[in-house]
Sequence to fold (420 residues):
Amino acid sequence: MIVNRLKHLLGAGSALVSTLVLWAMPASVQAEWALNLQRPVTEIARVQYDLHMLIMYIVTVIGVIVFAVMFYSIVKFRKSKGAQPAKFSHSTKAEVIWTVIPTLILIVMAVPSTKALLLMEDTTESDMVVKVTGYQWGWHYDYMEDNVDFFSKLTTPQSQITGSEAKGENYLLEVDNHMVIPVGKKVRILLTARDVIHAWWVPQLGGKKDAIPGFINEMWVRADETGTFRGQCAELCGKDHGYMPIVVDVVEEAEYQAWLANQRNSG
Amino acid sequence: MTTTVADHHHDEVPKGITRWLFTTNHKDIGTLYLWFSFIMFLVGGAMALVIRAELFQPGLQVVDPHFYNQMVTVHALIMIFGAVMPGFVGFANWMIPMMIGAPDMALPSMNNWRFWLLPFATSLLILSLLVPGGGPAAGWTIYPPLSVRVGWV
Fold:
């Protein structure tokens, strides 16, 4: 009896354990071990992180319950112990219950999801706009209101890629020209491409969108803290799809203006 | 002591390669499909192993990026169109006539020709890896919506 209980607890428990581990671990440890989503620095990223955790908790609970019931049934009612199968078929009550409960769960999941989607789609009242164009194989940033534009390509040396040199700290995540935006300002990002479909993705800034040739996609970003945030192209675009990363510097407004002036003069 | 002219004799059972090239028998054709599917599974599997070998450690060790993309794409095409679908058809050819009490499939010659198209077509696919520019390297982007240039908006 105890062995049976232990067995079904074990299976159901492992899913529970990993969720508890993630919940209990401080964010810094999670980041260091590359567990869970990256630390959010925008409202959207935070909303996505929380939504992801909520869904994960719901899914874990469902998993634990289902596996527990399954193991219990298999062990407790096995034929070698003389279990008799049930003789009934049809039960309207069961069918109603097992429809209503999942519907309620879905509604509980749909409400925050829809709010998150509406938040992500609302690009109105932005403070500035940047046009980002995907090329094979690099990004082009165009601050259209200020007449500043430049290409941004990978700077990790080939020797690191082929292994003749030790890999640097930002292996495959470093570029020559960073995209610079001011902190706390709503930046509307227009996305397009010049050849094939790419996708612009910086996890900590929240959101990833396809850069599609002949189509203008849009997303927005409002960073809450300064720092350097790195991302990657997220749509297979040919041989160097893995070698066209994104680096965004979020700086104070004054520093941003200085950078912009510098770009205008030298560009 | 009589020699009858019209004694019944079995149609000659073809031996060797002609048995397999010109069969109209659903079991033989099913066998052909299943063996083909198995061989293609090994070929596609070898490509998967190339992918795994490259992904074992960060950085490029085994293949260049363009060839890697070709391996991924052709692995998928071979597995779907060379292993899974012929596997299904092989089982269908074998079992369905028996299951419905039919003597064979309808249009048995076409059934045979239908099989023999497959090795020809798959050779084209595999040989495409050897032409200048290489084989298809587009990965999942060969499927809609990415292939119809709409993407995920």
User: Anything to note?
Assistant: The longest helix of chain A spans residues 43-76. Residues 192 and 211 of chain A are 4 Å apart (CA to CA). The helical segments of chain A are 2-24, 27-32, 43-76, 92-121, 158-162, 253-266.
